[in-house]
Design brief:
heterodimer; A: 369 residues; mainly alpha; Rhopdopsin 7-helix transmembrane proteins; 2 domains; B: 170 residues; alpha/beta; 7 helices; elongated
Chain lengths: 369, 170
């Protein structure tokens, strides 16, 4: 499972990282460098988590060196994530926070290096999730400890500096960043439990390793999605809105179906009843046409019912008391509806009218008028 | 050619960019393409009419009369429907500026009732063509402006925009 999932993710991550190299070469900038460093160190982290590569690396360098590299790279990528946001948003306190975090990272790397030199390098070969000695457990828990601190600071930075923006794409990206950080923190905590089970065996569970892999994969996908372009985000949001508008169309269609027996169609273009996929191919067409039919009918109904006619004597529905009552009911509901000129607002307004009419119809006992 | 294909052909010939659709810009585009000035004129329409289109008998001008006592979106659609009659080359009334001024002053009435005679016996087909084209314009405007609204922050923050640019996502 390890290699099958991790290798494709590594390949994508390295392509992403190297593709971004040209932006650094084109423009030397602290924020751009920090952002690239996140990608670079995260790619190293993931690469050294591939068991086969780690074994090959250890065999050709120093014993268990991959452990030091991948854990250090993980912490460094977290640091650069936070540093990029702090530098990018140009916050007055950013330098002080960054200095403290640099110091923390320095301490963590020093502790890890010492643990590696004196203990871990002497130990037998290790695997990603199963420590083989007490020294290794201390080494791994040290990483988890510093990792969680960095994650908390990173999440706090995001929450403070990406406050609730109204613009949906920024809100979405900020949410994904936060989710990525949270899943990273969860991954570290699961690992901490796994390593602690060396000391306290009751903590061990066969479900922890697959769970950790699952969370790691999620975190990596979220991490990659943060760097996708706004245009792609917009397309996804657009698609999502189109899917949502299917339900809006169903409500509008119900209203249209009630209006059609009462008012003629302008241009004689019928309101279709598309299936879900047919609707998704051209949602604006179906929604717009339904809205226009409703607005036309609203005007026509008002005209039919008010042009010097008294209820019950209208020639349009002479002898058709039910139709006249329905016309009056719909006219009242439509005249009470007001919306802005925003298309989505118009859709929502008449959607509400349709729902209210449907609800009142359901609540009216049979035979009552 | 059916009404939809005809509408698509007419729109394709206009080469109009529907991103951030504005009626004024669309009218200018149509005016340039057809060599006519297009005047939107709110009018106290007879009850059975939503809008009407008339050509100026003397000058290169088209008049789009529309009801102003309805929702803005509906007004826009009525304007588009009448404009679509013009773009489709349907028969219409010929008026002078003087006649319009007289009617606006309440001394005369515009002969809207003649429209039905002018367009019969193909009235239903002509209405279908105009409504199809008007709807196509409306749909494209909504689609393009929806995407445009997603891509452009209405209240951008300089630092954030710069940060996203440096992230390489904008």
């Amino acid at each position: 499972m390890n290699s099958f999932i991790l290798i494709p993710l590594c390949v994508v991550l390295w392509i992403f990282t190297l593709a971004r190299l040209w932006t650094i070469l084109r423009q030397i900038d602290t924020v751009i460098l920090n952002i690239w460093a996140i990608l670079f160190f995260f790619a190293i982290t993931l690469t050294f988590m591939v068991a086969e590569f780690a074994a090959f690396f250890n065999a050709h360098t120093l014993p268990n060196l991959s452990l030091l590299v991948h854990n250090s790279a993980f912490l460094v990528s977290q640091y650069f994530g936070m540093a990029a946001i702090l530098a990018g948003m140009d916050i007055p306190t950013a330098r002080r926070i960054a200095r403290w975090m640099r110091l923390l990272l320095g301490v963590a790397l020093l502790v890890l290096s010492l643990l590696y030199i004196f203990f871990v390098s002497q130990a037998q070969s290790t695997s990603v999730f199963a420590p083989g000695s007490l020294a290794e457990v201390i080494f791994r828990l040290t990483v988890c400890f510093f990792g969680v601190i960095l994650c908390i600071v990173l999440a706090a930075t995001q929450v403070v500096y990406f406050p609730a923006k109204k613009f949906i794409l920024i809100r979405l990206r900020a949410t994904l960043m936060l989710l990525c950080t949270c899943s990273g923190t969860t991954y570290i905590l699961i690992r901490a439990v796994m390593f602690a089970s060396y000391l306290w065996p009751f903590l061990s569970s066969p479900a922890l390793a697959p769970l950790a892999y699952g969370v790691l994969v999620c975190a990596t996908i979220l991490f990659l999605s943060i760097f996708l372009s706004n245009r792609l985000y917009a397309r996804l949001v657009f698609l999502w809105r189109n899917i949502e508008s299917w339900w809006a169309f169903q409500d509008l269609k119900r209203l249209v179906d009630r209006l059609l027996p009462l008012c003629p169609l302008i241009g004689n273009i019928p309101v279709e009843n598309p299936g879900f996929l047919a609707f998704l191919r051209d949602p604006e067409h179906h929604l717009y046409h339904a809205v226009v039919v409703i607005l036309d009918s609203k005007l026509m109904l008002a005209h039919f019912l008010t042009e010097g006619m008294k209820p019950g004597t209208h020639p349009m529905w002479e002898g058709e008391d039910d139709l006249l009552r329905e016309a009056m009911r719909l006219n009242q509901a439509l005249q009470a509806a007001n919306s802005s000129n925003e298309f989505s607002d118009v859709v929502n307004t008449y959607r509400r009218v349709s729902r209210d009419l449907f609800a009142s119809q359901k609540n009216t006992p049979a035979g009552a008028s | 050619m059916n009404a939809k294909q005809q509408a698509e052909k007419i729109l394709a010939e206009l080469h109009f960019d529907f991103a951030a659709f504005q009626m004024e810009a669309f009218l200018r585009c149509v005016g340039r393409a057809k060599g006519r000035e297009i005047a939107l004129t709110p009018w106290n329409m007879p009850a059975e009419l939503f809008g009407a289109w008339a050509s100026d008998r003397d000058e290169a001008r088209e008049y789009i009369f529309y009801r102003a006592d309805v929702a803005e979106l509906h007004q826009t659609h009525i304007q588009l429907h009448e404009l679509a009659h013009f773009l489709c080359g349907h028969p219409t009334l010929k008026l002078t500026r003087q006649e319009i001024a007289e009617a606006a002053a309440g001394r005369a009435k515009l002969p809207f009732e003649q429209l039905a005679q002018l367009r019969s016996p193909h009235s239903a087909d002509l209405e279908t063509q105009a409504e199809t084209l008007a709807s196509l314009i409306g749909e494209r405007a909504i689609r393009a402006s929806g995407m445009e609204a997603l891509l452009h922050d209405p209240a951008p923050e300089e630092k954030l925009a710069d940060f996203l640019k440096k992230m390489g996502v904008q």
